[in-house]
Amino acid sequence: GRIMKAKNIRKQVELGNIVHWKNSNYEVIKDNIGQWLLHSKCNNYYMGVFDENGQLHPKDTGYYVVKN
């Protein structure tokens, strides 16, 4: 599949679509203070999605959109 860029990931989430990473356990969310996080549903763990410049690591692939 096409590699998603950081800008497109943010746009899709803001449009109300679901963005997963690798599989349906990991979902990209924007929290109520504006942080972009990757949420693991199986253990309720959160980690940052983007680097300090708001970008993905160049080798960080596997993001995909599920239309909501």
Describe this structure in words.
This protein is mainly β. It has one helix and five strands, in the order H-E-E-E-E-E. A hairpin with a 5-residue loop joins strand 2 and strand 3.
List the helices and strands and how they pair.
Layout lengths: L5 H9 L3 E4 L1 E8 L5 E5 L4 E4 L14 E4 L2
Antiparallel strand pairs: 1-2, 1-5, 2-3, 3-4
Strand count: 5
> In which order are the strands of the major sheet placed?
4-3-2-1-5
- Regions with pLDDT < 50 over 5+ consecutive residues? none
Number of helices: 1
Distance between the termini: 19 Å
Secondary-structure-based class equals mainly beta
- What's the SSE pattern? HEEEEE
| Rg result | 11 Å
The biggest sheet, with number of strands, parallel, antiparallel or mixed sense and barrel status, is: 5 strands, antiparallel
In helices, the fraction of residues equals 10-25%
Morphology call? globular
What is the typical, i.e. mean, pLDDT? 93
Per DSSP, what share of the residues sits in E-state strands of 2 or more residues? 35-45%
Characteristics:
about 15% helix; 5-stranded antiparallel beta sheet; 1 helix; about 70 residues; single chain; mainly beta
Task: Write a brief structural summary.
With 68 residues, the chain is mainly beta. It is built from one helix and five strands; from the N terminus they run H-E-E-E-E-E.
